[in-house]
Amino acid sequence: MDQKVMVVSVLEWGAATPRNKETLRGPAQRVIIHHTALANCKDQKDCMDQLVSIQRMHMKERAFDDIGYNFLVGGDGTVYEGRGWGVVGAHTKGNNHDSLGIAFMGNFNYDTPSKEAISSVRQLLESGVCEGFLHPQFVLFGHRDLGNTECPGQKLYAALPQLRRST
């Protein structure tokens, strides 16, 4: 599965300019999986509207410099750039300086993540390793492994083995 995953850039989805960007000091050692805990977005326009709303909430209500996640993925498997590769996120308190935060768009306490979303994130992770942004022996966590939260929801948490490297 060497195909490169297509990523919708921040320019394409209409992101606000980040106030600041802090660069990771090397390849991310860990990947932390989240869910947005919002309604599943139905199509690209719906997902892009949600992204603008999430970024606004993160920057205004939480006083983050940008959207908290490095990448987000819709149910159709479309991957959206958040902070992107090589940038410190604001997704898991105390765990952002060596990690990549990826959020599945939706609430996975009740909904099952789509095969398309799982496949796209696997491809994104493979791409990150190939391009040197992600350590080849990265460790994958659900947000709940590192904090007192239900995130990424029971059904996405149960699907995490599908994202772990099979090599």
Keywords:
alpha/beta, six-stranded mixed β-sheet, 4 helices
Give a quick summary of the entry:
This protein has 167 residues and is α/β, with parallel strands linked by helices. It contains four helices and six strands, in the order E-H-E-H-E-E-E-H-E-H.
Q: How would you sum up this structure, described in words?
A:
The chain has 167 residues and is an alpha/beta fold. The protein has helices spanning 10-13, 44-60, 115-130, 154-159, and strands at 7-8, 28-35, 71-73, 79-81, 99-104, 134-142. The protein is globular.
Ranges with pLDDT <50 over ≥5 residues?
none
The structure class reads alpha/beta
Nearest-integer average pLDDT: 93
The DSSP helix count reads: 4
The strand line-up of the biggest sheet is 1-4-3-5-2-6
**What composes the largest sheet?**
6 strands, mixed
Proportion of strand residues? 15-25%
Task: Categorize the overall geometry.
Answer: globular
Report, as a whole number of angstroms, the end-to-end distance: 12 Å
In helices, the fraction of residues equals 25-40%
* Total DSSP E strands: 6
Element order: H for helix, E for strand: EHEHEEEHEH
Radius of gyration: 14 Å
